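Allow me, if you will, to draw on your knowledge of protein folds for a short while. I have a record of one protein: its chain in single-letter code and its fold written as discrete structure tokens. I should value your view on which stretches of the chain appear to form regular backbone elements. Thank you for your consideration; the sequence and its tokens are set out here:
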Amino acid sequence: MRPVNLIPEGEQHGARKQLRSGPLAYLVVAALVAALAGVAALVLTGNQISESETEIAHLQQEEAAAKAKVAELAGYTQFHSASEQRVATVTSLATSRFDWERVMRELARVLPEDVWLTNMSGSATANAGVEGSGSSGLRGSIAGPALQLSGCATGQESVAGFVQALEEIEGVTRVGVESSMLGNATAGATASATSDSASTGSSCQTRSFIAQFQIVVAFDAAPVPVTAESEAEG
């Protein structure tokens, strides 16, 4: 005889219940997938932001280092510029320097015995004021170095001989006589001589035959020194 199982099918031991399926299950799965995708996107975005912040910080460090290097090199640049300016100034002064020592030696050599000086001043330019030199119209017409001499001689012939002797000094281009007055000159000339004596600070006209003079010696061929005024004009 064939056995028959009389227990209902749903109550049989070990029987599996039929899984329920429907749209709700798909919605739950879709929500989970979307949440997972969102979490992954947030993680990726956070990583990208972190990497960008790290790169920005690195670039800022490089920028700061570059600025520090520029600031450090700026001192060398300024020093180099100042060095070039000083070299140019020294070169200019070297090429335009006037040898006053040589002129003084030659002046002492050519100075006659019958001529004596009461005042002497030298200037490299017409604008260079020298204390005690007095005013001279001839000096203002000479752009370069010039020598201003004041003194006395035993007569006008001695003054003329002194002028010729001054022309023998190397580099002298012209010698101008500002004034030359004898002690027994007219009243106007005597007043002029007195004024000249006051400007030089000394009177050497102790005799009537003594001529008091003011002479300007020009060195026109000498280079004119570079001054702050000439640089500003240039």
